[in-house]
Amino acid sequence: MEMFVVIVGGGGAGSYLASRLTSEGHKVAVVDINSDVLKELSSKIPSISTIVGNGSKLETLRKAGLEKADILAILTGVDARNVAIAMLAKNEFQVPRVVTRVNDPKHEWLFDRQTGIDHAFNQDALLVESIMKAIRTA
Amino acid sequence: MNVIVVGCGRVGSHLADLLSAEGHRVAAIDINLEALARLSANFKGTKIQGDALDREILYQAGIQNADALASVTNSDNLNAALAIIAKNKFRVPKLAIRVFDPSNAEVYRKLGILTISPTEWGASFIKDVLVHPELHSKLTIGNGDVQVIELAVPHGLVGRPVEFVNIPRQVTTVAIVRQGKAIIPYQGMIFEENDFLTIAVSTTAMARVEELLSH
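ok -> structure tokens follow
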């Protein structure tokens, strides 16, 4: 089933996710404040739509077509911003699934359905888990 | 009341001092220790240096028993995030935030978060002072969306009913002072010479009201 995914934050993770999703046939829009990041992304994958703007503003999210999105992936490097964007997504755009990155493990407790987030990925914890696993099996 | 103030800049420290002076139990949080030094020597509350998104810090501030939380840091997103956390995770009854960018303010207000945008409020206040100096505002409500104005009854209104002034959603006569006595107007009440009016006006209708009153 083809899905429409909006990604806020076109950095390393955002760009990689966008390319994986498009290669699987999904429709993707990427929002970033930095136009250079988006230019590079669209030169590599022209089918991705890119939106330059502040992802924590309603106007930018509307431009990205968030009201039609099946999934919103919030991947900025600031946890407060990620929570604030999730609040807009759930309350103004009724996005069915909101997934976010957790930057600081101390903030992980904030990311759950009470703050409008369906799935949260704590990158540091995931990395540490993998390393611990590797150490244990070595 | 138990009140948490997040962000101890000019607004936050002043707010925390005012609340403390009124006898409320206040916890002031700021990420910078120097900011907490802005609190006056009379501040009786708790000063907490740390990240307000850290659960331990919020617990230290007493979020579980807080009656109100005001977040006035210089990050709109942090203020909004803290309000939603306080509301949904701790059921804090009263929430207030300051935002510099008014564009998301309506969303926060719909969620029951008192949202103050100094940009919006300041602009509408200054506009009214510049453009409508004679309509001296006694009180502003919300972000200056509604102004309460006092004025002597204009000549053209004498002999007309209050309904002549009242326009739904734009202007309403709140009270009339007549012979030294204030009255809440009744339907069909006729303006008399020497009446003194208090009216509430939507800022967007200011020009119309000015025209109406110049009769």
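Chain B has a mean pLDDT of 90.
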